[in-house]
Amino acid sequence: MKKNKGFTLIELLVVIAIIALLSTVVLAALQNARAASRDAKRLSDLDSVTNALELYASANNGVYPAGSGTANPICGNNTFCLASQSTALAPYIGSIPADPSYANQAYNYRYCAANGNKQYTILVKLEKNTDWCILRTGSNVFVPSGTSCWMAANGVPNGRSFCN
Predict the structure, then answer these.
(1) Which helix (H) or strand (E) holds 50?
(2) Contact present, 110 and 122 (Cβ < 8 Å)
(3) What H or E segment, with its residue span, contains residue 42?
(4) How many Å apart are CA 124 and CA 61, to the nearest integer?
(5) pTM of the predicted structure, to 2 decimals
(6) Which residues pair with 113 in a beta bridge?
(7) Which long-range contacts does 92-98 make (Cβ < 8 Å, 24+ apart)?
């Protein structure tokens, strides 16, 4: 009786199943890394916007650009997308950055002005946190009701959870 050399069907199916399992694990890890990368880009972009806002306020006697727009549960009727500030901030930043997931829009970024435009808030939605997050704390930062997380530059969580 001649013995054939090769793999049985069961052995091939086991190898295919192992490869499929490993590729699933690798793809899941890759998706998490991509989301973290996009969140880091969002935070970096909004640091640039914060610097532009501070330069604007320095040139305008401590007054930030006025907020206007449709009602928003976080900032009331004093909120709008950052993209609408492109004219006011043009001398201080090349262009308002767009969200990395939506290249032609800045809809995941919100800017709110308060108290005679002497205070402001920049809010962002990160992929790993579904709540709106405030990026900074300080005397010039206004905290709207309805925010449940902070991204504080000075490390003070102020009773809220960090979204970093």
Answers:
(1) helix 9-59
(2) yes
(3) helix 9-59
(4) 27
(5) 0.65
(6) 120
(7) 92/51, 92/52, 92/53, 92/55, 92/56, 93/48, 93/49, 93/51, 93/52, 96/49, 97/45, 97/46, 97/48, 97/49
Q: Where are the beta strands (DSSP E) in the chain?
A: 79-81, 109-114, 119-126, 129-134, 149-150, 161-162
Amino acid making up residue 91: P
The answer to whether 146 touches 79, Cβ cutoff 8 Å, is: no
Q: Are 122 and 82 in contact (CB under 8 A)?
A: yes
- Give the span between the Cα atoms of 20 and 118, in whole angstroms: 57
Dihedral through CA 143, CA 144, CA 150, CA 153, nearest 10? -30
58-102: pLDDT as tens digits: 999 988 887 655 444 444 444 445 656 677 888 888 877 777 877
The full 3-state SS of 70-107, as one line of letters, equals: CCECCCECCEEEHHHHHHHHCCCCCCCCCCCCCCCCCC
CA atoms within 13 A on the CB side of 38: 18
